Amino acid sequence: MSYNLFDLTMYLSNWSLLLFIFWLVSDKLKKYLHLEVLVQFVYYGFLLLYFYYLFLKKYTFSFSLVIINFIIHYIPYKVISKNPISNQSYYFFFLVSIVYLVYLSIHKKNVIQVYFTDIKKYLM
Q: Of all helices (H) and strands (E), which one includes residue 89?
């Protein structure tokens, strides 16, 4: 199975992780990247999706994949959740969401396809 760059960028959690890494390494960016709402949304969305796939759809994933994905989503959540949620965080979440949806539409995808339809090609 081959993957392309779009496979890596089609998930909001990858965008969130990249922004978190920028936020973590740059003190200057901490003033402008208000990630609190975005990171919480991605973390809880990840948990809900895994619950859906594991318990409702009965999909099986390797244990190591689940653990690695959990850690990748939990660390930004744990670090960022120490900060209070500000209005700028809601604005930033809204902005990133709009850019993400436009990005998906440029690639002729939507959120339903990415998170509920295309997942099947990764399980085969």
A: helix 87-106
